[in-house]
Design goal:
Blueprint (H helix, E strand, L loop, with lengths): L6 H8 L6 H25 L8 H4 L5 H20 L25 H18 L16 H11 L2 H19 L2 H7 L1
Length: about 180
């Protein structure tokens, strides 16, 4: 018997209500919210000053800075992409290609707890972004300050979107007993 056909994996995949349309849209929107700031950092990696004054841009031309910015962009996008797992089948049954655990049902709290912690952390981390223009950015041109501020604004949505999708996932995956009690 393959791991994919084990009772708990099959049950997990078939016993949960489909996600609401708004949750699917919100999950996909998380990847788009992260994209503008990531593309801006990639522009820096490729040697475009992207709003920095020439003398300050030199700080970003080291190999270490380029590796850091590229890694940060990729990790942020991958983490945002994990939100889609909360509305897709691979958030209920681990894909078979993953060693050791592939084909097994995802325990709901194994997704809900890290997603909740991530949503709180992201909300706190990006809470000051709307006030970007109230802080001095002496290392940037006026246009660069404006553009970077605009590119980072969508990050404010990341935490709340993840929180909303997490609540939807939790509601769909809570035990039948707790659903009856909540009614």
């Amino acid at each position: 018997m393959s791991r994919m056909s084990t009772p708990d994996a099959t049950t997990a995949a078939n016993s949960v209500a489909p996600p609401p349309r708004w949750a699917i849209w919100a999950a996909h929107l998380t990847t788009l919210a992260v994209l503008p700031s990531g593309l801006w950092r990639i522009a820096l990696v490729l040697g475009y000053p992207a709003g920095y004054l020439d003398e300050r841009f030199a700080d970003f031309e080291t190999l270490g800075a380029k590796v850091w910015m590229l890694t940060l962009s990729l990790v942020c996008e991958l983490l945002a992409f994990l939100t889609i797992g909360l509305v897709r089948p691979w958030g209920e049954v681990v894909p078979r290609w993953i060693p050791l655990i592939g084909g097994r049902a995802v325990r709901p709290m194994a997704a809900v707890v890290p997603a909740t912690l991530g949503a709180v952390a992201l909300t706190v981390m990006w809470a000051n972004v709307p006030w970007w223009w109230t802080y001095p950015h002496d290392d940037m041109t006026g246009t660069g300050d404006l553009v970077v501020g605009i590119l980072y604004q969508p990050l404010v949505l990341w935490g709340p979107l993840l929180a909303a999708v997490t609540v939807s996932y939790y509601r769909r995956h809570r035990s039948p007993r707790s659903r009856v009690m909540a009614s």
